[in-house]
Design goal:
- The protein has 17 helices and 17 strands.
- With about 450 residues, it is an alpha/beta fold.
- It has a single domain, classed as Glycosidases (TIM Barrel, Alpha-Beta Barrel), CATH 3.20.20.80.
- The strands form five sheets. The chain has an eight-stranded parallel beta barrel, surrounded by six helices. The chain has a three-stranded mixed sheet with strand order 6-8-9. A two-stranded antiparallel sheet has the order 10-11.
- The chain binds 6-O-phosphono-beta-D-glucopyranose (BG6).
- 6-O-phosphono-beta-D-glucopyranose binds next to loops.
């Protein structure tokens, strides 16, 4: 590989998720998801915002794909709304739902854009939540398998990249520990047990995919927040070890090694919160890990951790997160740390030796639409520095399949509504026209893709 380019075939992409862009929440036979109901509960979302209409991608996908074509995207990552295919989670497939994704995929292929399909990005059918508590029950495995098989049968071989689950660590943590996402619970044990069920679903789907000989590559995307110790004091170094054992390696090992890290098991057992793991689980998880083709990560930031406060509860009993004096923060207090991406990618490479797909990376910011467009030089700077970090990771041996910016168009943010913008394309939510306008970052990313990264590596900036 030349010093100034990315590998041939590198997937320069951009991403979205069904609930955050599609809107049309009751259209053409779609059933209710847990998010359709959650947003109706007063006080659950920012200023009562919801994704009922969102960017109306369901009706405007042709225009959006045209914009993707203009940007030169090599890949577009999106998710399938389970409730469009199975309004009640299982049973007869809804042909209109299938048709929407079939058309979207066809259009992407016609425009030489690789579809990267996420099966699950948090919008569980409400019917399954009502029937057996959704992710709390192992019954989710069979229903998910049936849903996944329908997608594989319908969209293979057009789709070559599959992401089974998006950020299982976040939706279980926010849903079962922090009570910020549906179903709004707060229980460490429930969080870890539901997380365990996500790992079982991932493994079962990967195994079914491989057993049936579907073509392509399959993995899941985990939110990865690498961390540093606040100092060289052994107590801070120990805190870092505890952070990884109960956090990143806890989440990743079970997907990519089929086991939980020993230290994490010890700590969670002491906290009487360790999940129930059967012999059968162990076998399935080991098989699933061995068959998974890549590690998907969503990277936004790093953390800094320090020794715990001995009287604290929860994870705070093992470590505390503290501000990092060496980095700047976004308006939402997320650490901007491109080198953290390089560092994290190298850690993953050393630990798992698997190819990595960066399925999300981006900057949430307040954008301003001016008469002549959105001048988001701060986003360009953010993306440029992270892409450079990717390149450094590649030169350090990481096998990187692709990089997806979050997001392509502006969209609904689960906890921040429509104020926090991520897109390369502005969407006019203010007037409700939903008109699309290309931001400066759109034109800049187009050049990055056209030069296979070279212009980004050689260009100005830090
Ligand atoms: C990831 C999710 O957690 O981060 C996305 O996969 C989400 O769905 C993105 O939108 C950014 O998070 P937020 O809270 O800033 O919208």
């Amino acid at each position: 590989m030349s010093k100034t380019a990315f590998p041939p075939g590198f997937l320069w992409g951009s991403a979205s998720a069904a609930y955050q862009v599609e809107g049309a929440y009751q259209a053409d036979g779609k059933g209710p998801s847990i998010w359709d109901l959650w947003v109706q509960i007063p006080g659950k979302t920012y200023n009562g915002t919801n994704g009922n209409i969102a960017a109306d991608h369901y009706h405007r996908y042709r225009e959006d794909v045209q914009l993707m074509k203009e940007a030169g995207l090599k890949a577009y990552r999106f998710s399938v709304a389970w409730t469009r295919l199975f309004p009640r989670g299982r049973g007869e497939v809804n042909p209109a739902g299938l048709e929407f994704y079939t058309n979207l995929i066809r259009l992407l292929k016609e425009n030489d854009i690789e579809p990267v399909v996420t099966l699950y990005h948090w919008d569980l059918p409400q019917a399954l939540q009502d029937e057996y508590g959704g992710w709390e029950s192992r019954r989710i495995i069979d229903d998910f398998l049936a849903f996944a098989r329908t997608c594989f049968d319908a969209f293979s071989p057009q789709v070559q990249y599959w992401i089974v689950l998006n950020e299982p660590n976040i939706f279980t943590q926010l849903g079962y520990l922090e009570a910020l996402h549906p179903p709004g619970k707060s229980d460490l044990r429930a969080f870890l047990q539901t997380y365990h069920h996500t790992a079982l679903v991932h493994a079962a789907v990967v195994k079914m995919f491989k057993d049936n000989g579907y073509p392509g590559r399959i993995g899941s995307s985990i939110a990865f927040t690498p961390a540093y110790a606040a100092s060289e004091d052994p107590r801070d170094l120990r805190a870092l070890e505890l952070y990884y054992a109960t956090g990143p390696w806890w989440f990743m090992d079970i997907y990519h090694r089929g086991t939980y890290p020993n230290l994490g098991q010890l700590l969670y057992s002491q906290a009487q919160a360790a999940p129930e793991v059967t012999e059968e689980d162990r076998e399935l998880l080991t098989q699933g890990a061995g068959l998974t083709d890549f590690i998907g990560i969503n990277y936004y930031q790093t953390a800094m951790v320090a020794r715990a406060d001995s009287s604290a509860q929860g994870q705070q009993r093992w470590y505390r997160t503290v501000p990092n004096p060496n980095v700047r923060y976004t308006d939402w207090n997320w650490a901007i740390d491109p080198d953290g991406l390089r560092y994290g990618l190298v850690q993953l490479h050393q630990r798992y030796q698997l190819p990595v797909l960066i399925s999300e990376n981006g900057l949430g910011a307040y954008d301003k639409l001016e008469a002549d467009g959105v001048h988001d030089d701060y986003r360009i700077d953010f993306l440029r520095r992270h892409i450079r970090a990717c390149h450094q990771a590649i030169t350090q041996g990481v096998q990187l399949l692709g990089y997806c910016t979050w997001s392509f168009t502006d969209l609904f943010s689960w906890l921040n509504g429509y104020d926090k913008r991520y897109g390369l394309v502005h969407v006019d939510f203010e007037s409700g026209s939903l008109q699309r306008s290309k931001k400066d970052s759109f034109y800049w990313y187009r050049q990055v893709i056209a030069s296979n990264g070279a212009n980004c590596l050689n260009g100005g900036g830090e």
